[in-house]
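Deliverable D5.2: sample structural annotation.
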Amino acid sequence: MLSAKSLFQEILDNDESFRLFCSIAAAGESQGGWENARIAALVPEESCALVPKIVRHGADEDKHGRIFNALLRKRGLRPVGVPRETDYTMLLERRGIGLAHQRLSREERLSERDVITYLAHSRVTEQRASEQMRLLSRHFADHPDLGRAVRMISNDEDNHLAYCHEELLRLAEAGHGRTIQRVLRACALAEIRVYRDVGLAVMSRMGGILGWSRARSAALAAGIHAVYAYERLGGWRRMVSLEPPARRDALGGPAVPSPEYA
């Protein structure tokens, strides 16, 4: 029987599939850490109050990358190179979503519109991250190896999502509401396509490692396409709504290291 839990358990139980999973996750989180560090260094003067929160966001992402690498080391595994077709962050950038690495590599101050782009991009991608980590937490929160890591990352992702809601609402109240909604919509529609494509690429790689039958691979691909169809028809709207978060000032303090994985 196909289920999210049985599928991930199969990936977890095999060293090579687990190695690929953690390598992809670690690379994406580390990339997010670099991006947030560069954004914190380049924010315009009128957005300087955001700097500590952006720094905290980046520190959390770096921590997550270290956690996934530590999970690999615990099993005596080394990271592998991330296949280009599974690089979620860079595929989004190629679609013009978020702030390009070329832009962030320059020593030129960002504009307020750039800050909106960053927060809108984060609001969409953190929605996805929060949902994925809640799914893993539901099934593996008590796992002896993964449990503490999953719970910590899930809590961080919920904080990041709350932060994006709060800051975008503040900017909307300052008169940027239409711009925010336009950028959020474009980002969400691009993200669901990239998420579908990355999902298909990852499942293809995992199928090769785990020796899945054509029938099983086809069933998983059909499931990924069904999720995309739902999101394209209206599911994407959950990624663009804004509401006051239950967690206020979620990134208002310093990053909390994990004694197990830091």
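Annotation notes: The first helix runs from residue 4 to 13. The mean pLDDT is 94.
The annotation will be released with the project's public dataset once the embargo ends.
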